[in-house]
Amino acid sequence: MSVSLSPHVLSAVVLSAVVSRLRAAGCVHAEDEARLLLSTSNRGRPCGHGGPARLQGRVDVLVANAPYVPTGEVRLLPREARLYDPRVALDGGTDGLAVVRRVSAAAPGWLTPGGHLLIEVSERQAPQAAETFIRDGLIARVTSSEELSATVVIGTKPPVRPSVQAGMLGIGG
């Protein structure tokens, strides 16, 4: 499988990987991860500070590595994960989607029209996560890779449609 990423998407993926490592090191809590990913001016400040207001409605791609293991299943994870990853990096709440719901609810305020939210979940959680995205006003789709053993829910903020009046006046697209 070949994937081509634009520099903006690649930057989002790299930033997400860095924040994921910070979370695993206990520097940032999972519930603060989305806000940290949005902040481009977070250098030199403690982990967990939210993104600047000037970015609201201007984020093209938001990649969140939210914990999605249900609380009751954390004990079933491989020993290495249980021993070396902070519980907050693994435990996604009763159904595994607690943080996913919070990120989904906040995402429309940060995304540009046509912007995307990407969150990995389990294959069995994908329908419920997609419903959450839809409830929060995003257009949801699910994509999976057998090769990577991964399922990602992608939410797209609907594009803004010019009003009928603006179109009649020759304003807008």
Key features?
disordered N terminus, alpha+beta, four-stranded mixed sheet, single chain, Rossmann fold, 173 residues, 35% helix
Briefly characterize the structure:
This protein has 173 residues and is α+β, with helices and mostly antiparallel strands. It has 6 helices and 4 strands. The chain has helices at residues 7-24, 30-38, 79-84, 98-110, 126-135, 164-168; strands at residues 59-64, 111-121, 139-145, 150-156.
Task: Please give a structural write-up.
- The chain is 35% helix and 18% strand.
- The protein has 173 residues and is an alpha+beta fold.
- It has a single domain (7-46, 58-168), classed as 3-Layer(aba) Sandwich (Rossmann fold), CATH 3.40.50.150.
- A hairpin with a 4-residue loop joins strand 3 and strand 4 (150-156).
- Helix 1 (7-24) runs antiparallel to helix 2.
- Residues 1-14 and 40-49 have low confidence and may be disordered.
